[in-house]
Amino acid sequence: MPDQARPEGPTTLIGVTSPTFETASWARRVVALLVDWLASTLVVILIIQDAYFETGSRGSFLVLGVYVVESALLTALVGGSFGKLATRLRVVRVDGDPRPIGLLQALMRSVLIALVIPPLVYRPDGRGLHDILAGSATVDLQTWRRLAGR
């Protein structure tokens, strides 16, 4: 799936602003999510070890919790989860400000991603419901550098 181009200026649909820059493809975002999920699973296995593999284990819920915390903290601090950073993606503010989104926005965004449905509901500009509600957009590293003036 090609990246979504935004040659036109910001538009609103029921008060929702569209970014004026290119957002990352869904394929790259899915790869980043898989990297995050694998890393979160490995962290849980390192902590609870064999208990992760036992029938009825709460390991899956712990993976979800580790993912939400890791994703929210890293997104608020450095602009992307471990998976996004590893796949050269960044989360920026929808207005084009390259600074990381706030911690509460990042936490809400991560919880919504963990609920699965919000990322599946998306706009033509490539942003899912989690990005729309958080006022964010996912971009590749090249777009982030351009936004940051680097």
Descriptive labels:
disordered N terminus; mainly alpha; two-stranded antiparallel ribbon; 7 helices; 150 residues
What does this molecule look like?
The strands form two sheets. Strands 1-2 form a two-stranded antiparallel sheet. A two-stranded antiparallel sheet has the order 3-4. By secondary structure, it is mostly helical. Helix content is 52%, strand content 9%. The N terminus is likely disordered. The chain has one domain. InterPro entries: Pra-immunoreactive (IPR051791), RDD (IPR010432). It comes from Nocardioides lianchengensis. Pfam families: RDD. It is found in: Cell membrane.
N-to-C CA distance: 27 Å
Count every beta strand, where a strand is a DSSP E run of 2 or more residues: 4
Task: Kindly state the percentage of residues in helix.
Answer: 40-55%
Rg over CA atoms, rounded to whole Å, is: 16 Å
Count structural domains.
Answer: 1
Globular, elongated, flat, extended or rod-shaped: what is the shape?
elongated
What's the average pLDDT? 86
Largest sheet: 2 strands, antiparallel
Q: Extract low-pLDDT stretches.
A: 1-14
Determine the oligomeric state from the structure: single chain
Fraction of residues in β-strands? 5-15%
Backbone structural class: mainly alpha
If helices are DSSP runs of H or I spanning 4 or more residues, what is the number of helices? 7
Topology:
Layout: E1 12-13, E2 16-17, H1 26-48, H2 59-78, H3 82-86, E3 89-93, H4 103-114, H5 117-120, H6 129-134, E4 136-140, H7 141-148
Antiparallel strand pairs: 1-2, 3-4
Helix pairs in contact: 1-2, 2-4
